[in-house]
């Protein structure tokens, strides 16, 4: 790693967290039969071991895609996602590693090409968050690490993937409702999500001439390992998502269809856009 990089903060808290230990379990199962909208496509999905990433992997597989499961260190969860993809009749490979390390992406993408021979979709979903009451509590290591994981990783992965993306390819980035309405206890995280939205819009303009679409999804509060395993104060978990107009957190399989729509030909006239599965929060953007 570059000397300015910071190791993942998996010893400071429980992140990234194990989906198998969550109670209740998140709903990742696709809600409808597939219609071959991604037939024989190949997708990289980061953070696909659990949460939104797992739900996207399951839905993409049902729609006919082979999946490269990029994840940090939750090997059991990743193996379960692989089994889910294979149960849909598609191929999957596990690609563990730190996306915040600039040396990881080129090797990881090459593994995908060596295995599947092509790359059609990149889903930049992985991320981390660390709550702080006071901006003075955000350490330099935490600040650097959050930006490495949440936005630097997207640059690294797109740079590595770009030579293999042809006309018709799609890139979908995961931003957040916090980019639009802010979050008083997630200052560094929200800042990275603002950067992701700007990156999405700028990259879409950069690649539109090559026929590559770039869009984003901005989820609201979704029941995944991210918050219960250190991404939110424990005392706030019982009320997680209750402040949305729908009065509850969303499930990963309520977000995955947004990622599917943006990946397939249904969204052929959309680039530089953001979809908002957030329980009814009006963000005007």
UniProtKB/TrEMBL annotation:
InterPro entries: NAD(P)-bd_dom_sf, Sc_DH/Rdtase_CS, SDR_fam
Gene Ontology MF term list: oxidoreductase activity, acting on CH-OH group of donors
Highest rank taxon of the organism: Bacteria
Gene3D superfamilies tied to this protein: NAD(P)-binding Rossmann-like Domain
Residue numbers spanned by region Disordered: 1-26
Keywords in alphabetical order: Oxidoreductase
Transmembrane segments: none
Keyword 4Fe-4S: no
PANTHER family the record matches: NADPH-DEPENDENT ALDEHYDE REDUCTASE 1, CHLOROPLASTIC, NADPH-DEPENDENT ALDEHYDE REDUCTASE-LIKE PROTEIN, CHLOROPLASTIC-RELATED
Family to which this protein belongs: Belongs to the short-chain dehydrogenases/reductases (SDR) family.
Name under which the protein is recorded: SDR family oxidoreductase
Source species: Sphingomonas edaphi
């Amino acid at each position: 790693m570059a000397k300015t990089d910071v190791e993942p903060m998996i010893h400071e808290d429980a992140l990234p967290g194990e989906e198998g230990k969550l109670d209740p379990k998140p709903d990742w199962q696709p809600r409808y039969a597939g219609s071959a909208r991604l037939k024989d496509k190949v997708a990289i999905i980061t953070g696909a071991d659990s949460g939104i990433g797992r739900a996207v992997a399951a839905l993409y597989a049902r729609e006919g895609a082979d999946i490269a499961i990029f994840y940090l260190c939750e090997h059991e969860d990743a193996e379960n996602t692989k089994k889910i993809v294979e149960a849909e009749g598609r191929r999957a490979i596990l690609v563990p590693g730190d996306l915040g390390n600039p040396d990881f992406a080129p090797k990881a993408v090459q593994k995908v090409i060596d295995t599947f021979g092509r790359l059609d979709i990149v889903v930049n979903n992985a991320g981390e968050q660390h709550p702080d009451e006071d901006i003075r509590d955000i350490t330099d290591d935490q600040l650097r690490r959050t930006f490495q994981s949440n936005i630097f990783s997207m640059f690294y992965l797109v740079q590595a993937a770009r030579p293999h993306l042809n006309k018709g390819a799609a890139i979908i980035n995961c931003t957040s409702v916090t980019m639009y309405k802010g979050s008083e206890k997630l200052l560094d995280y929200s800042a990275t999500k603002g950067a992701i939205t700007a990156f999405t819009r700028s990259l879409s303009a950069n690649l539109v001439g090559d026929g590559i679409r770039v869009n984003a999804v901005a989820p609201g509060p979704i029941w995944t390992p991210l918050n219960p395993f250190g991404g939110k104060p424990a005392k706030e978990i019982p009320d997680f998502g209750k402040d949305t107009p729908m009065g509850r957190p969303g499930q990963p399989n309520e977000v995955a269809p947004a990622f599917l729509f943006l990946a397939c030909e249904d969204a052929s006239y959309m680039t530089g856009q953001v979809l908002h599965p957030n329980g009814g929060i009006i963000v005007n953007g």
